[in-house]
Amino acid sequence: MGAASPKLAEHLRHMIVGITGGMGCGKSTVARLFERRGFRRLDSDQIVRDEVLIQPEVVAALRARHGDGILGPDGGVNRPVLAARVFQDDAERQWLEQLVHPGVFAAWRTAFASAPKARWAVEVPLLFEKGLENWFDFTVCVACAPAQQLARLEQRGLPRGLAGQRISKQLPLARKIELSDFVLWNEGSPEFLEAEVDRLAQALEAA
Questions:
Q1: What is the pLDDT of residue 130?
Q2: Does domain 15-206 have CATH number 3.30.1020.10?
């Protein structure tokens, strides 16, 4: 899927940074810190929630596959029900990814084209799993120890068993670290992470 999604031509934009990492490691926090430093931020999960899953053709496809039980009282997709189904069945998860990813890529293209000279920070949980490296000038992995990762997810209300199940569906964090251009270790204070992002943003601007 990634091979079919080429970068925009080099001369059209200043910089696109892909931010990935494990669940609960702090991708969104890092992306917001980049945003405070003048980058424009895109959250791929938010695009799925707010743009792709409300498209009539996507809702129809989900209803055809899963029945009316996949819909909420308002007729929209019941995301917790959908998540419970796809994380229990790899085939269903892969089918869903094939359904929603084209809409995500279209949203990326539209955003990049709207400000071709901007610097972009894009949150992409499955960046390496889906071979999306060619979209980005640089890739950044946000990482922390597994125990802290699980603790953060529990604080968000995700039971430990479900958190472990969902983490297991992603590429191991150690492999994401190997594949990334840069790694931010998020186990210290917020100020430490902010200083890390400052240094990295400065390095990227000088690259």
A1: 95
A2: no
Nearest Cα to Cα of residue 184 among 18, 7, 37, 13: 18
Check: pTM over 0.85? Answer yes or no. Answer: yes
- As a whole number, mean pLDDT of residues 108-125 equals 95
- The rounded distance, in Å, linking the Cα atoms of 84 and 87 is 6
Q: Helix, strand or coil for residue 154?
A: helix
For 58-86, b where at least 16 C-beta lie within 10 A, e where not — what string? Answer: bbeebeeebeeebbeeeeebbeeebeebb
Domain ranges of the chain: 15-206
- Which amino acid, residue 4? A
Per-residue model confidence as pLDDT tens digits over 63-86: 999 999 999 999 999 999 999 899
What is the tens place of the pLDDT at every residue in 163-198? 888 888 889 999 999 999 999 999 989 999 999 999
Residues 134 and 148: beta-carbon distance below 8 Å: no
Diameter of the chain by CA atoms?
Answer: 53
* Backbone φ and ψ of 88, nearest 5°: -95, -10
Q: What are phi and psi of 126, to 5 degrees?
A: -105, 35
Read off the amino acid at residue 160: R
